[in-house]
What we know:
Layout: H1 2-45, H2 51-55, H3 65-78, H4 102-115, H5 135-144
Helix pairs in contact: 3-4, 3-5
Amino acid sequence: MLFDFLVWLVKALASYLAIIIVFAIVVGLPIAIFDHFRFKRLVRKRAGLSICQFARSFDCRHVDTRIIRAVYEALQGWTSFGIKQFPIMAVDDLNKVYGLKDEDLDDFAENLAQAAKRGWTDLERNPLYGKVTTAKDLVLFLNFQPKQTG
């Protein structure tokens, strides 16, 4: 009796798991295809742009160039979709262009802080805390964070 119940339970869970996987494929695949073509269209519109134009959006006397490069390269990595060298613009909305929402953005920024040798403490003291919406905001937010020593 218990064995029959366990077999039934495993079959039921397997069925539910299969339904979830099929749903994820049916819904997720069109979204991935749409994003791929959206990024391809953006690449064509931004032809000729490079990290140089991105860096010119900042006053390099006051903004750490390590942060500028780290943000540029990390956002390029975020836009995988088979597109290499995606041209990042400082005005890019992190949510609309890259799909970075609150939790993702927090993790993304923390990883960038480590890469750029910036601290990840006292975030509430940062004047841009809770206000990061663009690639430029992200660079400036990280620039306000204290440098790590060592």
